[in-house]
Amino acid sequence: MGLVLSRLKFAKYKTKADKKIFTFISDTIEEGYSLIEPKAVYEIFDAAIRAGEVRFPEAKLVIKSPALAKRLKGAQKAALFACTIGGDLADKVNGYVAKGEIARATVLDAVGSEAAEALADRIDDAIKAKAKEEGYAAVARFSPGYGDWTIFDQAKILKILRSGKIGVKATKSYIMVPEKSVTACIGLIKRGQRPIRKVYEKNINPTKK
User: Fold this and answer.
1) pLDDT tens-digit profile of 26-74?
2) Between the chain's N and C termini, which has fewer beta carbons within 10 Å?
3) Most distant CA pair in the chain, distance
4) pTM of the model
């Protein structure tokens, strides 16, 4: 609940709200959790880091981003992943907006944002754990839209990962649908012998540790 409140700009020890408001928020958070259907897919590829770009020969993908190349410096492999909490929560948010229930829609949207980030963290941890077993060290993840990495590459990543199997696609404007979805890249340092591939689906719950 704390992270959702922070996203709603509640200052700890400073923001005052009566019991009725916190009950409303708590109930809406629980509603949000019930609407989450987390799914993810990732794949690890050989990566070639060049000045200002990262190449994935197997996937026939070239990402022109000095920021990403800098982040992945020294990596021989890199993981690409996509994850989503599904579209039910966003649909419910839009429904509340249509009915004029803006407060409930705002809280629910905050739940979705925090859940998507938590899911990305879980996938990040899963990749790092698997990579460690294979003798790799992982660097912090980096996503399209950050630094100089254009969101135009999002559609390419989704195609490579065949993200349709988890229900994620990119619009003509390169925006992901469902809305609460994340793509990212994680560099892996130390030469490996074989690719690591895995699909995660409903068994991942970002609301539980």
Assistant:
1) 899 999 999 999 999 999 999 999 889 999 999 999 999 999 999 999 9
2) C
3) 58
4) 0.82
